[in-house]
Amino acid sequence: MPFEDELGEALRRTGDGFTAEGRDLVDAGERRGRRMLARRRFAVAGGSVLALALIGTAGAYANGMLWSGGGDGRADVASSPEPPAPQRPPASSGDRIGTGAVTADQMTAVLKQLLPQGGLSDIEARGTGDQPGPMVTGVFDDGEGKGRLGFSLSRVDPTGPMADDMVKCPSKATLNYDSCSSKKLEDGSRLLLFKGYEYPDRRVDTKCWRATVVTPQGFLIDAQEWNAAAEKDAPITRPTPPLTLAQLQALVTSPLWHPALNDLPAAPAESPQSPPSQPGHSGMKAVVVLEDLLGKDDIPVVSRDEDGADLGYLVLDEGKGKSLVSLQIQPDSAKHPGMWADLFTSAETLPNGTKLLTRQQAGEKGGAGVVWWSAEALLPNGTRVIVSAFNAESQMTAATRKEPVLTLARMKELATSPKVAMEYGR
User: Where in the chain are all domains bearing CATH 3.40.1000?
Assistant: First the structure.
């Protein structure tokens, strides 16, 4: 797909993820933050290398313009906007590219040199002087079936939150994948190896494998591949993508990319990533708060996971089937106070000023028979608290029980509990 088409599709997907209930693009981008960007590189169909290369453009990165949320405009545990993350000042569109010392043809030549025996066709490439940064994509055929390959280069602050997020495995509570590993190499680089699928709900069994490395110098190299000639809407041509994970690792760790990476300017330093910060907030993670809240319920915890400090998951099973429960915290915006207010126009108002509403709806991620119940509270200080429960281990897997493990009444108690008010309501 040409870059212009890919960018348009990325923007359209992002637009689909914003609710129509009073939130504008600027607010939505600010709220999503860098963790949403990193998660979406897995969860959205492809997290395409062409779109991923846009992270070099700070404006697109800071405004969350690359990956989608939920497809129907409703906020949920996996796609609702993120709490504000520290942002660096937007850079101009031209300050993240290089001098052009490495051309698109040279990028293609390096990729061909590093690939195993086979042919590369349908090539699109950019050099270090091309917006928004160097990349190569094409169709590789080793004689056993065509597979799409994508490859991009960029630079990040090696000690910043974005670098951490790019090599962190996603939560299995929100994404169905086969394997993921993250490790540190001998030279200090951090490497992520991932085996997943183009579509998180597996409606088409197109596989997407990737390797991402961040070096101590801040080099960010990302490669991904599919077992089809295109990311989407193409027949599966082989059982697995053409390169093994070991071959992908060799591809992204090759020093042959260093001339191109050295031609790119170093990324500016990022602000540290921190838990939701409010006066009186202790910094306790949402998953810990959720576990404490459910302590008196005495329901066995099967597994525990998190997506940052503000989103925690527990899988519970009292003997009637596994049930995913989550707690998500979405602080108000300092720039645009009251940004959640429009979502609570029909909510019940409690004596202390907290607004409360509940929802019961079908799951959104493809799991057969999955239902999703939620209790949402808008605290007096503007923080939104979402307690969600499902009748399955995840939204992508089939229902294991008729209803979630928690009743709506219990979920309302959790969302409006004194502990939540103490942690997030001051």
Answer: 286-424
Place of tokens 């169909």: 45
Q: What are phi and psi of 7, to 5 degrees?
A: -65, -45
Query: Which residue has tokens 């170093």?
Result: 266
Mean pLDDT, rounded, for 225-250: 94
Q: What is the DSSP string of 285-296?
A: -HHHHHHHHTGG
**For position 186, what pLDDT does the model report?**
95
Q: Which amino acid is at 206?
A: T
pLDDT in tens, 167-194: 988 877 777 789 999 999 999 999 999 9
CA atoms within 13 A on the CB side of 33: 26
Half-sphere exposure in the Cβ direction for 154 (13 Å, CA) = 29
Q: How many residues does the chain have?
A: 426
Residue 272 — pLDDT band, cuts 50, 70, 90?
low
Q: pTM of this prediction?
A: 0.65
Highest mean pLDDT range out of 100-109, 172-181, 305-314? 100-109
Question: What is the structure's pLDDT at 161?
Answer: 84
Is the CB of residue 138 less than 8 Å from the CB of residue 229?
no
Q: Which string of DSSP letters, residue by residue, matches 146-191?
A: EEEEEEEEEE--TTSHHHHHHTSPPPTTT---SEEEEEE-TTS-EE
Token pair in block for residue 248: 């992908």
Cis peptide before 216 (omega within 30 of 0): no
Domain 286-424 fold is Protein Transport Mog1p; Chain A (3.40.1000)
Instruction: Give, in degrees to the nearest 5, the angle at Cα 331 between 325 and 332.
Output: 140
Please state, in angstroms and as integers, the Cα–Cα distance from residue 342 to each residue in 123, 191, 387, following that order: 47, 42, 19
* Mean pLDDT of all residues belonging to the chain: 78
What's the rounded mean pLDDT across residues 4-30? 36
Return phi, psi of residue 175, to 5°.
Answer: -145, 130
Q: Is 308 left (phi over 0), alpha (psi -120 to 50) or beta?
A: left
Alpha carbon separation from 177 to 151, 171, 174, 180, 198 (Å, rounded):
21, 10, 10, 8, 10
